[in-house]
Specification:
Length: 371
Amino acid sequence: MQGLAKVWRRLNGDPVGTPIGLAKPETQNYHGLVNFGNTCYCNSVIQALFFCEPFREKVLEYKKVNKKVADSLLSSLSHLFSELQKKRSNSVKPTKFIQMLKKENEIFDNILQHDAQEFLNYLLNHIGDTLKNDAKAKNSTWVHDLFQGVMTNVTRCLSCESVSEKNEHFLDLSVDIEPNSSINHCLKGFSATETLKGDHKYYCETCCSKQEANKSLEIRSFPSILALHLKRFRFDDAARNTNMTKLCYRVVFSREFRIPSSICKNGESILYSLNAVVVHCGKEINRGHYITLVRPSKYHDTWLCFDDEDVDILTASDLDTFFGTTESSIGRGNTESGYILFYQKVDEEKEKEQNETTNHVSTKSQKEKKK
């Protein structure tokens, strides 16, 4: 596993012995997580989720309200979040959480490297199941309220024009990527229309036969926290083996992006703000490394980089380094690229009120000083 210092020096073309000049956050209470051997995939996702404030608050609340429940992955996560909040000078050992994770699912051992997105998906679903069991109900939980969106498979028969729709829920949204693209481009490609024809014709219930049809995916409901997974790994058909190839394409992820009203079901546009990025380092899915970039406060555009136990400060412009490589730099550029992006929905009315209040207080203070 390589530390952030080495990663940063390589990204900037500096010799390994050159000081990187990044100040440690000495006065703030941020802690790295100890790596127990190939657990960076887990550490990176935990740090990203910890800095998703609505999720963190619910997890910490669970610990207070459910003191007598049996140990679970959720209670272990709640304990871990509590440890991350304490004032301390050293990093945190996620011992209890890792032990519970391996107990709940033996796939997540610490012998091999695991995929961060698979772990995120498992964790969110497991927490949802735990909450349903605790409440003995089938209704959605606060995990679903925060992360769940709805996409619809829409199929239109080109013969009779009948439309078939099937809803699917998601807790994280996986999108295909292309070279030199952006998040907005990826989302547009996600909902592109595909024509089913030839051997792939659609069986139309109205026509009672196979017909050519247009098929598309539409996102009907966007979540409060959008976990966007960039599909950077695919099987290499040319290699004729089961190895997965990493796509180090440059994909720009903006600090804010807007879902246009034409896509939203209720006709209102949605503004999302980026607050965490899980970065994959390396060229192979099973031999790479994960780090996490987080924005600890929405009022400042300073970012933190968590590399297991190490914590360093970044600026917003430093995030550009983790977009990926351009086609002209493949083979020469870095392999540290954004893999899972955590966007939080912005309450624009609330933000507007807060800004107006802040401006009013600032103006009043300036007038009083002049007196």
